[in-house]
Amino acid sequence: MQLWGPCIDLFCGAGGLSCGFMQAGFDIRVGIDVDASALLTFERNHSQAMAIKEDVARLTGDKLRELARSETVLGMIGGPPCQGFSLAGNHDPDDVRNLLPYEYARLLKEVRPAFFLMENVKGLLSKKQRIHFDAIRELFSAAGYRLEWKLLNAWDYGVAQTRERVFIVGFRTDLEASFDWPPPDPTRPVLRDAIGDLPEPVENETTMVNHTLSDPRPVSMVNRLKNAGKGIAMFDCKVQDWEQPCKTVTAHLSKDVDLAHPGLPPNHAGHLFPNVCKESRYDQTNRRAGWEDPSFTITAHSRSAGLHPNHGPVPTDPARILHLVSQADADGVIPLEALEMEMPTRVRGLKGRQKVGSWKKPNPTITANAGFYAGAHYHPELARPRRFTVRECARIQSFPDTFVFYGSLSAQYRQVGNAVPPKLAYALARQIARALGYPAERGGEV
């Protein structure tokens, strides 16, 4: 694929903007940030680019051209850290981080690329912060750029998330560039479209990278769910809906959980007791097809729907079994005393066999004999809300599964939450390419 470039990504973070611009055909030569974990993620997912740890206040235009390995730079993109402007924070007009867009403007004037794109939070348009927004635009114009700006919602551009951000796009005044904002994507995906096909997370990393959960319900989530709507925190924990776009994925999902997975998809609850039981009136009740067989006819009667391939023999005493299972300890083991009381003649050799699966433990050994009295296993509860995994957050942000995040768990959540959704970045990059007269190319699905 031919690349249009070279381009520089300031405040690159993990590289959401770069991901979208690369897909549109731009040559990202260098990403600059002060976050070491984010730069590791950027470097390993953008092998063609240099990842530089540096404070932008210490950079010059000459240094940027040297890093880009070119005397001329086609584009400069980036989203200066936004905590000082964010509506979610103290939105202090005097926050030192508010100065970073001014550094962006300084470097823009020194580098003089053909175009630039800057992203920031909606709070930049607030009454308190508008002085910064107007001043930054004045500096961009004075540097010799014709500007367009707009508040965009990522949900309108193929991202399953209601995420509003301000984008400023500029072209050098000596260029005859006519820019149009990307048309909305009519699909408007919902949460199910983004993560509905993902398996439940496990505690240890598998082939699905960034999809582990060692603590699915941290204390902060439990407290926020308990006190939802009572003003305990600025963001009460929001349990998401499968049929709606996700609320904005923030950079604070590791410790200050303000989003919760919706739980099982609707109509996906398993029934073992009392819906499945032995009743001689129903010949079809306990039919079980194997994984390699076609299913039996799905009837209109719930009691004759058939059994899941993993299901063992149907017990005749469900109430008794339920009572036993309810006494399992934290490791899923039913106390020997309880077994002796319920079935004194069968307890020999049974210690530890009746176990309820735990999300935090390896599953007990699956034996060849699946009857209840010889090692049956019971699936743990799935319906409770839990935190999203990093991979689920990345999917919601429209990152491809091949994009891997590195660093501590907190760092990974932060990187995903701070990123510009690649699909939105791609839509903007294509329009910029068209404005410059380039036939924007699609290098693959974002």
Secondary structure layout:
Blueprint: E1 4-10, H1 16-23, E2 26-33, H2 36-45, E3 50-53, H3 61-68, E4 75-78, H4 100-111, E5 115-121, H5 130-142, E6 145-153, E7 161-162, E8 164-172, H6 191-195, H7 219-226, E9 238-239, E10 246-247, E11 259-260, H8 318-325, H9 336-342, E12 355-356, E13 377-378, H10 390-396, H11 409-418, H12 422-435
Parallel strand pairs: 1-2, 1-4, 2-3, 4-5, 7-10, 9-11, 12-13
Antiparallel strand pairs: 5-8, 6-8
Helix pairs in contact: 1-12, 3-4
In short:
By secondary structure, this protein is α/β, with parallel strands linked by helices. Helix content is about 25%, strand content about 15%. The C terminus is likely disordered.
Question: Which terms summarize this structure?
Answer:
13% strand, 12 helices, alpha/beta, seven-stranded mixed beta sheet, disordered C terminus, single chain, Rossmann fold, two-stranded parallel ribbon, 446 residues
What is the CATH topology descriptor of the domain at 4-183 and 408-435?
Rossmann fold
Percent helix range: 10-25%
Task: Measure the end-to-end span.
Answer: 15 Å
Element order, helices and strands? EHEHEHEHEHEEEHHEEEHHEEHHH
CA radius of gyration is: 27 Å
Q: Overall 3D geometry? A: elongated
- What is the CATH homologous superfamily assignment of the domain at 4-183 and 408-435? Vaccinia Virus protein VP39
Which stretches of 5+ consecutive residues score pLDDT under 50?
269-282, 349-383, 442-446
Strand content: 5-15%
- How does CATH name the architecture of the domain at 4-183 and 408-435? 3-Layer(aba) Sandwich
Spatial strand arrangement across the major sheet: 3-2-1-4-5-8-6
Query: What's the tally of helices?
Result: 12
Main pleated-sheet profile:
7 strands, mixed
CATH uppermost class of the domain at 4-183 and 408-435: Alpha Beta
Strand-pairing-aware structural class: alpha/beta
- How many extended strands? 13
Overall pLDDT metric = 78
